[in-house]
Amino acid sequence: MSSQFLSSEEYDERAHQLYNEGQYDEALETLREGLGLYPHAVELHVGVGYARAAREEFAWARKAFEEALVLDPEHEDALAGLGEVLIKFGQLDAAVRCFRQTLELGYHDDVDLMLQIGRAAFREGLIEVAREFFEIAAQQVPDSAEAVALTGYAAHRLGDDDAALKALRKALQLDAEHVEARVYLANILFDRGEYEASLYHLERTAPEDHWDELGIWRLIEMKKTTYRLKDDAEELRVWQERLAELGGEMDAMDELFAEVAQAVDEAEERASQNQLELFGTLLGELATQKGEPQRHEIVLRDGRRFEGTWDEIVATWRASAGAAAGRSLAEFMANEARRGFSITGAKIPSNDAEAFLRASANAGLLRIVT
After folding, report:
1. Dihedral (C-alpha) 113, 119, 122, 127: value to the nearest 10 degrees?
2. What residues have CB less than 8 Å from 118, skipping those under 6 apart?
3. Closest by alpha carbon to 46, among 20, 16, 17?
4. Quick check: 226 and 200 in contact, CB under 8 A?
5. Is the pLDDT of residue 231 over 80?
6. Where are the domains of the chain?
7. pLDDT single digits (tens) 26-59
8. Which strands form 366-368's sheet, in the order they lie side by side?
């Protein structure tokens, strides 16, 4: 339909609606049409900048924001947008100057703008800058669970876990349904070894609340340990299904990267294993001379103890987990190695019982007594 009688504000409003719906091409077309009639409309230039940025056309976005600032050097949205784009070009100091200029102009009370700038800085790793803007927003609206939670995320990224815990707990007091804050809090508590508190919060989430595998892995492991559940327990099924959904299917490039990573890991494991084998061979020969294999004892985090040779210990552990039927020792070790990695971030070899148990002990997942 004809739009020749639309004002510049109406063009901006229409484009803004299209932008919010993710229709960036249509928004850009609307803005261009508006600029054809109103070439000095600052808001339309700003809109073009954000539409271009959404399409990852950062050079064009920069040009649009700069044109807006020529028309109005103190336009807060143009300054914030230009700052975001400058980060993409690696011009961090210039970006931060744009962000801070909004403060100099007195926009502290524009909470949406403060959060927008904070999130942009956070995404690009400028965590101290992000924390500054998040805290300004939280000061303006102290009853905003979202603003308070964001200060907690930034504090955690800066290694200030005490402040992070305080902020996230406050966010949940303000809004008990703030799932992201609850999951984040649970993961920090887990990393601090406060497993009971971590499980308390994770059990108050639903599978669909999670968009990352880590929290689900941890929930499953803690529920198994706390309630002595087996792998196939009914109450774990919905979590395991969500875990499978998040894992998704790998495309050809993902598979290639996975194969390369696996090859590197295997090479490292072989190099490490060669060293173990040098000692293992000597110990084995000594044990053979005495007429009996070496026996060991381990203790898991839940207090279970297993004795025997390395292979016997793994076999007994597998049986106690209810996995003796339908899963080989190699499969069991591979599964536990994946779980160990999700919990500790440590790579655990799964091609040899001794290497598997020693690496698990180094990661703090068990203790080797003898």
Report:
1. 40
2. 129, 130, 131, 132, 133, 134, 137, 150, 154
3. 16
4. no
5. yes
6. 295-368
7. 999 999 999 999 999 999 999 999 999 999 999 9
8. 305-308, 296-300, 366-368
